[in-house]
Specification:
Radius of gyration: 24 Å
Largest sheet: 7 strands, mixed
Structural class: alpha/beta
Helix content: 40-55%
Distance between the termini: 42 Å
Oligomer: single chain
Strand order of the largest sheet: 12-11-10-13-14-16-15
Strand content: 15-25%
Number of helices: 18
Number of strands: 16
């Protein structure tokens, strides 16, 4: 359904369920419900289980508003705004597992109350810091007799299969999910789990049997499948038993520790105690200088500076390339009950592009990232030397992550620094003639207004605080 030009923007990723659609009106998130969606909402809003999940913060805040807000829709809901939208291929193993477990808990409680969820996608979950939250309120519907869980295939492809890949084979799942918005197909999994691997936990039932049943029922209608299940004695109790079984399986899965250089980076890098103290003070003063809604910490590693930024910001998105490092950080933040820091897996030399239908169903990282403060500490040399990205383009990208008037806190690692020398040792001589402090300062001043700078005691690193567009 179209909406007149009233300043209301359609969410590009919400078109798949024709019963409802999500819109943005300024800072508000609205959901339009058609006749079927409005009927399901009336039943859901009167249920005790839904009220309990809302009170526990496991479902995003939701309330009905005047239906005239979205002409052409039967009912309209207003949702809590999630601080920063992320995608499952930007999560670590433990994040994906916790998201899967919350999805199953919500489904189990819905089934017990006579409801189901029409979807099982990982994209139905987002984060408040290190806590997952279910956002697809339009997915709930009353449970019909002998009805299978319609979201099972999505759940397998976007949640269970990636976890099995990582736990059983030690393969990082992020590239697999990034490649296909609908996740990993059963046929792909079956090829990976042959021979003795066929017997690994979860594989016989949820990979091989699922794939075989999917092929067998490819031409059957939903009505036919439901009739077959009813004749076989399928019931809500059996559905609940299946959900509990998947839950037990996922709780037993864990990330295989393959080791990582970056896990020990803070211990092995060239900072002295004095360097670190100076750097921490510089970062804290920069973030505290003005109220910050969103801070990006690019190359966060163990989250040291993300935690400092979180003292003065509503939300910190902490980006790190190594999935093992992000997993370690997430588990620590979860144990701390941290709700202001969201850790994400991302290579800044290859940030998340737009994806899905028309390339906009899943927004790119650049389109989502408009921060009040961007921390780029010990990042520029990795991009410029390690990634062969021209220094002007490195600064262009760092500046683009900040909103106009926002702050950029950037560290320049001099060519003579031990870490820079290590990177340069693997490059042909003379390939980076412009990687110099004076050139970096010239480029920065051309793009920002530099407010202050400080050379660290080591003498080979300099910090800059600059206003973007100033």
């Amino acid at each position: 359904m179209a909406v007149p030009d009233t300043g209301i923007r359609v969410e590009p990723g919400s078109f798949r369920d024709p019963a409802n659609r999500v819109f943005h009106a300024g800072d508000e998130v609205l959901r339009g419900l058609g006749p079927d969606g409005a009927r399901d909402w009336r039943a859901l809003s009167g249920s005790a289980f839904f009220a309990e999940l809302l009170a526990e913060g496991k479902i995003c805040g939701t309330e009905p508003v005047d239906a005239t807000r979205l002409p052409g829709w039967t009912a309209v809901l207003r949702h809590e705004r999630i601080p920063f939208v992320s995608h499952p291929y930007e999560w670590s193993f433990a994040m994906l597992r916790d998201a899967a477990l919350l999805h199953l808990e919500i489904l189990r409680r819905a089934l017990s109350a006579g409801f189901t969820t029409k979807d099982g996608s990982a994209y139905n979950l987002q984060w408040r810091g290190a806590s997952p939250v279910f956002i697809d309120v339009g997915s709930f519907a009353p449970l019909a007799e002998a009805e299978p869980w319609a979201g099972y295939r999505q759940f397998c492809q976007t949640l269970l299969y990636p976890l099995l890949l990582q736990a059983h084979l030690g393969l990082d799942f992020q590239p697999w999910l990034r490649a296909r918005v609908d996740g990993i197909e059963p046929d792909q999994m079956r090829r990976l789990f042959r021979g003795a691997r066929r017997l690994l936990p979860g594989v016989p039932t949820h990979v091989h049997l699922h794939g075989a049943m999917q092929g067998r029922n490819a031409r059957a209608s939903t009505t036919d499948v439901r009739a077959q299940l009813k004749a076989a004695g399928y019931s809500r109790d059996l559905a609940l038993a299946t959900v509990r079984g998947i839950d037990r399986l996922i709780r037993r899965l864990d990330r295989r520790d393959e080791g990582s250089h970056w896990v020990d980076y803070q211990r092995t890098c060239s900072y002295t105690v004095r360097d670190r103290e100076e750097k921490e003070g510089f970062v804290e003063a920069a973030v505290a200088a003005a109220p910050a809604g969103l801070v990006l910490d690019l190359g966060t590693n163990d989250g040291r500076y993300a935690r400092i930024a979180a003292r003065h910001a509503a939300q910190v998105v902490a980006v790190e390339q190594d999935p093992a490092v992000v997993d370690t950080l997430y588990r620590a933040l979860r144990a701390e009950g941290e709700h202001r820091i969201l850790p994400l897996v991302m290579d800044l030399a290859d940030p998340s592009p737009g994806g899905g239908w028309r390339g906009v169903e899943r927004a790119s990282f650049g389109d989502r990232a408009r921060a009040d403060v961007v921390l780029a500490l010990a990042v520029a040399h990795h991009l410029a030397i390690g990634g062969n990205v021209p220094l002007p383009e490195v600064l262009d990208q760092l500046v683009a992550y900040a909103r106009p008037g926002g702050r950029l806190v950037v560290e320049f690692v001099h060519p003579e620094d031990p870490m820079a020398r290590r990177l340069l040792a693997n490059k042909p001589d003379g390939i980076f003639p412009d990687y110099r402090r004076d050139e970096f300062e010239r480029l920065l001043a051309a793009r920002c207004r530099v407010e202050r700078q400080r050379e660290l005691p080591c003498g080979t690193r300099t910090l800059y605080q600059a206003v973007v567009g100033g």
